Amino acid sequence: MPQSQMIRFILNDEPVALSDISPTMTLLDWLREKKRLTGSKEGCGEGDCGACTVLVGRLLNGELVYETVNACIRFVASLSATHVVTIEHLAGKDGELHPVQQAMVDCHGSQCGFCTPGFVMSLYSLWMSNPAPSANDVEVALQGNLCRCTGYETILKAALKVAAERPDALVDPVMRNRAEISAKLEELKPKKTIRQFAGTERFIVPANLSEFAQVLATEPNATIVAGSTDTGLWVTKQMRDISPVVFIGHLDELQTIQQTSEGITFGAGVTYSQALPVFKQHFPKIAKLFYRIGGQQVRNMGTIGGNIANGSPIGDTPPPLIALGATLRLHSMAGPREIALEDFFIAYGKQDRLPGEFVESLTIPFLPRNDHFAVYKISKRRDEDISALCGAFRIALDDENSVTEARIAFGGMAATPKRATEVENFLKGKPWSAETANAARDLLSSAYSPLSDWRATAEYRALTAGNLMLRFFAETTGEAIELQRYAMQEAGE
Amino acid sequence: MSSMNAKSITGPIHATLKHDSAHKHVTGAADYIDDMPEPAGLLHAALGMTQRAHARILSMDLSDVEAYPGVVTVLTAKDMPGTNDISSAHLHDEPVLAEDIVEFYGQAAFTVIAETRLAARRAARLARITYEDLPFAVDVENAKKAETGYVTKPLRLARGDVGSAMAKAPNRLRGQMKIGGQEHFYLEGHISLAIPGEDDEMTVWASTQHPSEIQDMVSHVLGVPANAVTVHVRRMGGGFGGKETQGNQFACLAAVAARKTGRAVKFRLDRDEDMTVTGKRHDFVVDYEIGYDDEGRIEAVKANFAARCGYSSDLSGPVTDRALFHADNAYFYPHVELLSEPVKTNTVSNTAFRGFGGPQGLVGAERFIEEVAYAVGKDPLEIRKLNFYGEAGSGRDLTPYHQTVEDNIMPRVVAELEESTDYQARRNAIVEFNKTSKYIKKGIALTPVKFGISFTMTAYNQAGALVHVYKDGSIHLNHGGTEMGQGLYTKVAQVIADCFQVDIERVKITATTTGKVPNTSATAASSGSDLNGMAAFDAARQIKERLIAFAVESRKVPEDQVTFLPNRVRIGNEEIAFDDFIKQAYFARIQLSAAGFYKTPKIHWDRDSGRGRPFYYYAYGASVSEVSIDTLTGEYIVHRSDVLHDVGRSLNPAIDIGQIEGGFIQGMGWLTTEELWWDDKGMLRTHAPSTYKIPLASDKPEVFNVRLAEWSVNAEPTIGRSKAVGEPPLMLPVSVLEALSMAVASVSGYKVCPRLDTPATPERILMAVEQMKGL
Do the Cβ atoms of B138 and B310 come closer than 8 Å? Predict the structure, then answer.
């Protein structure tokens, strides 16, 4: 096989070039079974426990960034032009522990040790990117790592200790060799579309967006894989045959973030982590929600486009995006097409995506200055959980404090992310008062016919959806009532 | 390596020492079974699971499974060379593979053996099974209605005359509490590797807390004597009770496949399968009646503890027994009658889980207290103090199982914690806060833990160890306990280092194996270091006695002039390095190896009469937690938890604090976010971390202070006067549950006990708030 058709990347300090690789070979299985690098563990095989955490370095707009990923749901074939760093790479050749590792030992941060390599990798990533993390920062960095032994306190102490005792010199091989690795990754970027076969399975890594469109035109049934935070589970849990697979996570054209006077357009391949700073600046309420989507690894992998394109009724981003009036740009050989995001979701498992079409970008209009907007996610566990329900509220008020426009959208309440039009109509023209909010609450509680499942009963969903109207009202009148971790400490109480 | 004038050794008992594998944990170099080099020709196994909660298997067509590329063989119930049973209770109610009847959704009926794990997993989905559906019941209420019966014999504990005491009590109340189960969620799932040997020999590596039982089960299923089977385990990636009996099935299947194919077979479960086919903590329904006086002093307790046991007995007998043993927690009940009901259900057979039924009994006891407190309108802490066991001989010192509480330090622990955490002032401030806060309500609670230490099956309270001192002065340590992260290996190595007065680096900790120490008990019931520490101490003592005798004889000095100093021995006026002394002993033909043994003294238990001393001693602790709830959504945050816990004289404070912190968070998960949910077909739908939510770092209390009761010394002569630490801390976070309950109760002015069931998910909190609003 010519080199141009191989999947080429760097593993720790070793160049790798793979041919005949199965599109469903996960990075974790490949590390453990083919490379006998057994430090990364399988705890769940679905990206929820973080025992398999490794770093993947990639060039993003010319800059080398390292991010934690779940190796158990990352496919090897998606690793072109990356630098994979595993736990085995951290300690010095002489066995000297990395400061992060040493802190974990000193603080008694391991008990059974099975989750520990994953924790070390997440802490290592934090250590690289944040020299002075707060307790909250550490917890965010560890949202994708489960430990069943320690109760986390010792791990938290280790993270804070290693930050406090940070050496001046760049002690580890990853930070030391950035320039060299950047150059290598640039060189490894595929110049041509890659097509590989393994037995009856095959995959395509298109060289650019137009080749992607061409591939989809000839292979309308191909499985499109970007971050693989969902498709990974189709393979590891459902044992589904997803061939042929088109990998698109590397496409530069899908990684753009463009601002206009009206709003911001995100390429479908932009990950949550990439988008976060932009959301923080322009849509801070959604940024807050982002911290409750998956763990850090999933946010580093999962894409804005993927959360929409997979059409889940419990995806977290559609409700607030619908409330903000976001639009979607779809792309095929026939040309682009723009639709309102809410129209994309037709029914459970059915979206308005034609054969050969893919989601290219998402445009979110800016929130008018005087509009009120909020999004609330309710889940059994606060972080790294799937919504029982997720509600987004937006209202515009006139000078008389009357509601001129209302958009309310919920996930988890119906077969698709759905607006509560009845409640919206009720609110229009009403004074924005406690009385109105109370009446809207009752309407909202009966606006949907939710299901009962393991996340919540229908009764809870309905009751809470309504109550969120009261929370929204309280918030618009200056009373922030949502429970915030460490809020008391920050307020100096 | 060792200095001739060192003042102390590294790693004596009572020292803070890192876990022996810490360095390997953080580098990924610690090998779990799936990390070991694989034998040539290794085959892989996958379970063939059924899809009915209760049914008769009419036919099973495995032709597509067998034809799948890479499949080598498929095992069914008929392939067991010995017996198709792995009932740890020896009640013959637990088949390795279901034959005619399926008793829970997911129960294995066949096992695929293939060249790769992927091929085995894919092929396992291709079976065509037809069923005749039978009626099923997945929960206690429905099972009792359907009269499914008990999986094992119920227990009754009684003292005094509960009937007339209840009738005469100034006040009575009745209630019910539902206590949820819990998935262990050890990070390393079940795994076994079986390697066939010559003749009838079988070597098994298993992630197990109980190698001797794996050995027994494999020998029964293979139909060979126990001496043909050797079981090894170096470490587990967590156990928590979930690897006490639950690994038997996979070890047996791997061994049968290895025997059948003549090749090594590895059986590593997928997480979803592991959660579907292995048992969990028992859920309980507790019905209670309490008689009490106007002050809140309890006069009589009558309670029934019905448990969801699943389809077979497994450990449900001792688990439900232990629930009753802890239904008093730290409180004296003048008249009491406690009943257990080990109810059969069409669910996976529930099993051991840290606390072993004790936590459910204790949560019940704390509910009794809470009920009385709300009924008399007092802070539950006042009611707790009023009802604590008294001093030995006070007339308030006898448990419902007729053991005298001789070592009661509960009042002191609680008083110190109450004082050091400023409990009263904080509670007053919270009551004030709740008066004006519209949606957010706060709560605080201080709850105690008293936990009985020993296996209630007296025979299990024995242990063995094997210690070799080699000619070069290095020491090989082996014992029957297993390492699952709790630091047992480290603690026992400290015992040996301390005993010989050598640096701990000189002590090689070796994998637990049935070939070195036989007939071991499960590493369970918090007993690991109590039992194995003493057994190792006994082995070291024997070798030391021989060394002392050698010194006395060779130097002609009296025995009291032989002293083991750090890394050296003083004999009369001579000091000699430990290594050199050992070398001399070897040449003098001194036996430098010994098998140690220990059995816990004083304990006895007569289950039929419900009387005895099942526990050698008690461990105590208490915690205070403060929370906020959002009464619009039921969401909550744990702001602060403070723990004061008794481990006697700690063998290793860092490891003990780690156990306490970890136990606390695990118990908090059990009581808050961890919910098991079955659908209407009887299928468990919370079988992965995406649906089953154990605590994250961001769930721990924002402020989390854990202290040891440093003044505590075990009244009994345990190893170093320490106390067991594994299970008791799991129950400390009952304070979180009760703080949540207080916040809920504030909605109706604390007039009514909210009767919050567990797990107290946001949904349960909100629904309880709604009930309070309706009052």
Answer: no
- Residues in chain B with CB shorter than 8 Å from the CB of A382 are 635, 696, 698-699
Contact B44, B266 (CB under 8 A): yes
Nearest to B22 among A105, A151, A385 (CB): A105
* pLDDT tens per residue, range A425-483: 999 999 999 999 999 999 999 999 999 999 999 999 999 999 999 999 999 998 878 89
Q: Are B193 and B33 in contact (CB under 8 A)?
A: yes
Contact between B666 and A378 using a beta-carbon 8 Å cutoff: no
Q: Which long-range contacts (CB under 8 A, 24 or more apart) does B91-99 make?
A: B91/B151, B91/B152, B91/B312, B91/B313, B93/B151, B93/B311, B93/B312, B93/B313, B94/B312, B94/B313, B94/B314, B94/B349, B96/B221, B96/B249, B96/B252, B96/B253, B96/B256, B97/B253, B98/B50, B98/B57, B99/B57
pLDDT surpasses 90 at A173: no
- Which of B1, B7, B35 has its CA nearest to residue B21? B35
* Domain stop point among A124, A140, A171: A171
Return the DSSP state at A205.
E
Beta strands B475-479 and B462-469, pairing class: antiparallel
Question: Which residue out of B103, B289, B727, B738 is catalytically annotated?
Answer: B727
- Assess whether B727 carries a catalytic annotation: yes
Beta-carbon contacts of B759 under 8 Å, excluding residues fewer than 6 positions away, are B180, B670, B671, B672, B673, B674, B675
Q: Considering the domain boundaries, does residue B380 fall inside one?
A: yes
pLDDT digits (tens, 9 = 90+) for B457-474: 999 999 999 999 999 999
- Mean pLDDT along residues B186-206: 98
Q: Which of the four pLDDT bands, split at 50, 70 and 90, describes residue A157?
A: very high
CB distance B751 to B625 below 8 Å: no
Q: Which domain holds residue A51?
A: 3-88+178-247
| Residue B12 falls inside a structural domain | no
Q: What is the CATH number of the domain that holds A234?
A: 3.10.20.30
Q: Which residues of chain A does B23 touch, with a Cβ-Cβ cutoff of 8 Å? A: 97, 105
> Nearest Cβ partner of B630 from A87, A384, A481?
A481
Query: Does one domain contain both A223 and A142?
Result: no
DSSP A97: P
Which of B42, B65, B187 to mutate against chain A (most A CBs within 10 Å)?
A: B187
SS3 B648: strand
**ipTM value of the model?**
0.98
Q: How far is CA A59 from CA A83, A188, B707, in A?
A: 10, 11, 48
CB contact under 8 A, A471 and B23: no
Same domain membership, residue B475 and residue B449: no
Domain that holds residue B616: 404-454+607-775
Q: Please state, in angstroms and rounded to a whole number, the distance separating the CA atoms of residues A11 and A138.
A: 27
The residue among B509, B632, B670, B679 with the most chain A CBs within 10 A of its CB, best to mutate, is: B632
Residue B371 belongs to a domain: yes
Rounded distance between C-alpha atoms, residue B259 and residue B264, angstroms: 9
A43 to chain B: closest CA residue = B187
Residue of A nearest to B185 (CA): A148
Query: φ, ψ for residue B478 (rounded to 5)?
Result: -140, 145
Q: How does B732-758 read in b/e, with b if 16+ C-beta sit within 10 Å?
A: bbbbbbbbbbbbbbbbeebebbbbbbb
Q: Tokens for A170, please give them.
A: 């760049």
What is the DSSP secondary structure assignment for residue A31, as one 8-state letter? I
Q: Which two tokens stand for residue A31?
A: 């590390």
Q: What is the pLDDT of residues B262-291, one digit of tens each?
A: 999 999 999 999 999 999 999 999 999 999
Q: Tell me how far the alpha carbon of residue B41 is from its chain's centroid.
A: 36
Q: Domain check: are A334 and A421 in the same one?
A: no
- How close B677 gets to chain A, by Cα (Å)? 6
Residue B144 CB: number of other CB atoms within 10 A? 17
